[in-house]
Amino acid sequence: MKSTVLRAVLTRSLLVSSVLAASVLVGQAYAKTLVYCSEANPETFNPAIGIADSTMDAAAKTIFNRLVEFKPGTTEVGPALAESWDVSPDGKTYTFHLRHGVKFQSNEHFAPTRDFDADDVLYTFNRQRDANNPYHKLGGGAYEYFNALGMGTLIDKIDKVDDHTVRFTLTAANVTFLAGLALDYLSILSLEQTEKMVAAGTPDLIDSQPVGTGPFVLQAYVPDSQVRYAANKDYWRGAPKIDTLVFAITPEPTTRVERIKANECQVAAPPPPSAVADLRADPDISVLDLKGQNIGILGFNVEHPPLGDVNVRTALAKAIDRKAIVEAVYAGAGTVSGSVVPPAQLGAVTDAGIDYDPEGAKKLLKEAGHESGLKISLWAMPVSRPYNPNAKRMAEMIQADWAKVGVHTEIVSFEWGEYLKRTAAGEQDAFLLGGSSDNGDPDNMLSYLLSCDGVKGGSNRSRWCDKDFEKLLDEGRVGADQKERAAIYGKAQAILKAEVPVAPIAHSMVAIPIRKSVLNYVLDPFGRQNFAAVDMAE
């Protein structure tokens, strides 16, 4: 995303001040504004080429829709742009019947001449899966989610049956396919806008000023300040109750706390755990809790010597006191993780973490020829995330733990978008990251973080590819029996414990503070933000 382009073209009236009234009396009606204190800039406004939650909240959930979507507050898949679908007996063919009369949004550069139809579905998927597609290289041509989750190898072909019917044929039956289609990165894009912007020589506008079918229309964006939206009055589910939505970009968690307490925002991204009790005591604020389906990890780039040696990786994992880290960083809102797979998910085990054993770490390092003098970089995220509320503090504690076993560590960080880009390219030695599940299935987290496809796509920042682990992932996607799938994922987690491409650190509780003037807010089980149905008390 070109911020210089955005700064030049989005010059309409903005909220320079962060203080906004929740509603303004206009005649006899209220024009309602809701401000959300978000944690970071979106990387882009095209979900297909983004990966961060900040992108999906600011783009996918506001501007776009998917073929199918999770019903609010649940992990159950329901209709969206596809109003119904049929599945063949062998589980390999899905036929989607598309909704009629769904309109794409307009902006100052583009006005649609037709409604949403099958051509937009084919464009959205084929742009990502086909390197020969004329639009594949737009926006850099990096489709991390699509590649990491194996969609390219899973989909054999996509056929347009008619303007409102699309048929997907898979290479194999896959029990995760339907839920996979509900993920934010598969938001349906406008083929017509792409054609016109490319023809006009302004392809950057596809990603910086998109049009979707969703509840809000992007009006303006100023990096490090705010994103502003207007209600989509033609939204197919009905116009939102709020007229204006503002994402006030507020990376510092303590500042978000101050702003929501002052009613400068009405909903905020997760606060620091230490501030939750104070927020609960505020009579005007509710704090909604979610046992997060997430994982914070310490990862090792196996392509950087000596991290290709499993004994070195194991030693570094043994050297860190995860219990002390969780107590200091999560402040009662996290638990030491037993696995990469969150406890609430199918097949999760509790014994796949690496226990604290500094003497064992020293022994392994000595055997590997690194008794002293080992130097590695440790990359730390610059933003607070639900799965890691303070990566800088965590990195400092790991640095101190590693120093005790003779390892010298340089802590490295970059702006969030740059951090994701550079770690996807494999510049790091060790790194802190993690993720929140997108659909509640163990395949999602394991495939995204650790699959061989993820190495090519950039999501597997450990650059670790194991054939036995990959075989188990394939088996888990085919089987419909839950007990069999649980056993498969148990074996996969055993491989991760033995190979240590990542060291699981913690699962966290997610707390979302909202002002009591906010109505109809539903906590998302995956920690995302959706304001389509939210209202404000007058």
UniProtKB/TrEMBL annotation:
It comes from Mesorhizobium opportunistum. It is found in: Periplasm. Residues 76-455 form the Solute-binding protein family domain. PROSITE patterns: SBP_BACTERIAL_5. CDD domains: PBP2_DppA_like. SUPFAM superfamilies: Periplasmic binding protein-like II. Residues 1-21 form the signal peptide. Belongs to the bacterial solute-binding protein 5 family. Coiled coil: none annotated. Pfam families: SBP_bac_5. The keyword Nucleus does not apply. It comes from the Bacteria. InterPro entries: Peptide/Ni-bd (IPR030678), SBP_5 (IPR039424), SBP_5_CS (IPR023765), SBP_5_dom (IPR000914). Keywords: Signal. This is ABC transporter substrate-binding protein. The lineage of its organism: Bacteria, Pseudomonadati, Pseudomonadota, Alphaproteobacteria, Hyphomicrobiales. The keyword Ribosomal protein does not apply. Its main location: periplasm.
